[in-house]
Amino acid sequence: MKETWLFLSLLCAFSLATSDALAKRALKNRDEYAVAFLRLLFSVPLLAIALYFTPLPAIGPKFYYAFFTALPLEMIALVFYVKALKASPMSLTLPFLALSPAALVVVSYFMLGEKISMAGFLGVAFIVAGGYTLNLSEFKNGIFEPFFAITRERGCIYMIITSLIYSVTSALGKMAVENSSPVFFGATFFMAMAVTMLPVAISMNRADLKAVFEPGIIKSCILPGLFYSVMVITHMTAVSMTKVAYMISVKRLSLLIGVIYGRIFFNESGIGERAIGTGLMVAGVTIIAIFQ
Predict the structure, then answer these.
(1) How many angstroms separate the CA atoms of 81 and 47, rounded?
(2) Which of 74, 113, 235, 286 is surrounded by the fewest CB atoms within 10 Å?
(3) Residue 67: which residues within 8 A CB-CB, separation 6 or more?
(4) In this predicted model, what pLDDT tens digit does every residue of 5-29 receive, in sequence order?
(5) Collapsed DSSP state (helix, strand, coil) of residue 225
(6) Range of the domain at 269
């Protein structure tokens, strides 16, 4: 059983990073709203198959609240996510997804009065240090320049917003899973996102259906969609087999894979410091997930 969830979690990380890299390639000179929608659309067939073979769970009283509260938030996060991929290097933007657990720790302290454990403090420190290291080469211009460099990259700002939204939707997703089942929620939720994203994509393209369903953009979004569906299915299946904290910690290896993809496919520079920074952030996520 241990080997199974670990393999599925690693496959989930690989699928997410690969989908992101392929989506970034599709975004070149193309509308981000159309790409966001089409990536979801082409994930639907595999999700539908998974849903067909999933027994209908007992639906708890909080399922619909969590589902429909998370839906608009996830759509906003998806748009910012794709905007981040388009605007800035993958190796610089993806690591900021590690901010979600750190945000949860800090928000819980200020809003709920929950004390931050030593593990939580250490995890946040690792994530902050990793964010600083991503732009360590800017240190020569001033001690705070590595942080200021983040604000000069629109993609980083977009991904930070995405990560903060994910800190909320992750809690809502957990609530929905507890009131249904992992695969049922994952499949139905992302299929619903595909449906609701269509009018957004059309309206942002001035009601021009041809712009959304142009043959070139359709072809470029098939593989990102397929890998995205594999990510959803493996995520939900792995979560049902082990502790969520363990699964998420392994899944966050997608950030390191994304940094490698940035170098291989997009010839991004500064990979050394970004790999070190991302590694520190992944370590911070792992500490928070397992020991907080």
Answers:
(1) 21
(2) 113
(3) 176, 185, 188, 189, 192
(4) 889 989 999 999 999 999 999 988 7
(5) helix
(6) 2-291
